[in-house]
Amino acid sequence: MRPELAGGSGNPAATGGKVGYVLKMYPRFSETFIVTELLQMQRLGIDLEIFSLRPPIDGRFHASLAELRAPVTYLQHVHLRAGDLWQTLREASMDLCDIGGQLDELLSVEPREAVHAVQIARSVRARGISHLHAHFASVSAVVARLAARLAGISYSVTAHAKDIFHEAVDLEQLRRIIVEASSVVTVSDFNLDHLRATFGSDADHVRRVYNGINLDEFPYDDPRDRAPVIAAVGRLVEKKGFGDLIDAAALLRDAGRSFRVDLVGAGELEEQLVTQVHRLSLGDHVRLLGGLPQSEVAHVVGTASAFAAPCVVGTDGNRDGLPTVLLEAMSLGTPCVATPVTGIPEVVVDGVTGLLVPDRDPAALADALARMLDDADLRTSVAKAARDLVETEFDAIRQARLVAECFPHVCHEA
Question: Across the beta sheet with 154-159, what order do the strands follow?
Fold first, then answer.
């Protein structure tokens, strides 16, 4: 049974109108889409609290975080000892009267997840939170689901990519999360089709809501007269396909072209990619810039003649849902060359809003990038069409309103 059906109108926590966001780690440097959504929820007048299951480890933060007024609770570090769970249950029994009825559920998950669920449930009761929303249908959703059951309130989930495609995904656990949620959104039609094909009627209430971007932060500029720079942004992991981009750069160099690739990001493959650049003698053509604040990323992307998103499906099944930075490039007027992985063809329509090439095909990627660098009319044409699409489908306040429809008992500004 879904938690909102179990809570009842007599539960004071069910009418408070406050939403608690449950996140694995907040803030996370690469998850700008979450900060964007939270800021738009704040703009809509929704009272927010944030629960972070882990402390941040990035060490760098985007300036927009300063605008967010929502209080953040970092859950207590839990040593994985049996006594911790029992002590937590004893302390919580005074304010969570149904905790005994949820014992089987608590014992079905990792001890740390159970303790975090109890901690959040107690906060829900104490602070008048009426609904929980989790980003990613993995550990944050596991905790939100249990906390909602304990507190007798509803919860919803945004499913992204790794949380539904990775080979390690527990399908039965994901099914429970989807079935009990009052609402589930996912970030592309590709994801929506996958969930409905996997879970059948259990996923009938899942709907697609694209991640939104703040268009004011990514103003359009005509790309006609830009320098021959190719920008790429993302974590340096397999699914981003940056090794293919470096191979494509070698082909462009061998063809005698004048260009530069600016690759922004950090991650586990950094050393491997640096080695590849040196092995191919591309030091004069490829720069690995590391992680940069969002304002600097916007400058790198917004002054480039082309943006490359050569995404692939990883060997572990992991893949992007629909990269937010691709939408940001489209907003900035930077023409995109991408691969048809997951939701990307929903925004990059070949020859209309960008160019599509087969994944894991550096030669095709090089040809498309060369075409974009050479043809100023093509750059301008696809850039204008891409910006129109982003304005229509991805405006942050519009998307936040759609997500807010998942929050029962919560009023927000029209």
Answer: 72-74, 47-54, 18-25, 129-135, 154-159, 183-186, 206-208
What is the structure's pLDDT at 11? 38
pTM to 2 decimal places: 0.89
For residue 82, tell me if it sits in a domain.
yes
Kindly state whether residue 410 falls inside one of the protein's structural domains. Answer: no
Q: Which residues pair with 134 in a beta bridge?
A: 22, 157
Asked if the model's pLDDT at residue 2 lies above 60, the reply is no
Check whether residue 154 and residue 298 sit in a common domain.
Answer: no
- Residue 38 placed within a domain: yes
Domain that holds residue 347: 215-393
pLDDT in tens, 404-414: 999 987 766 65
Number of folded domains in the chain?
2
| Residues 364-374 pLDDT 10s | 999 999 999 99
Ramachandran class of 20: left when φ > 0, alpha when ψ lies in -120 to 50, beta otherwise: beta
Return d(Cα 339, Cα 344) in angstroms, integer: 7
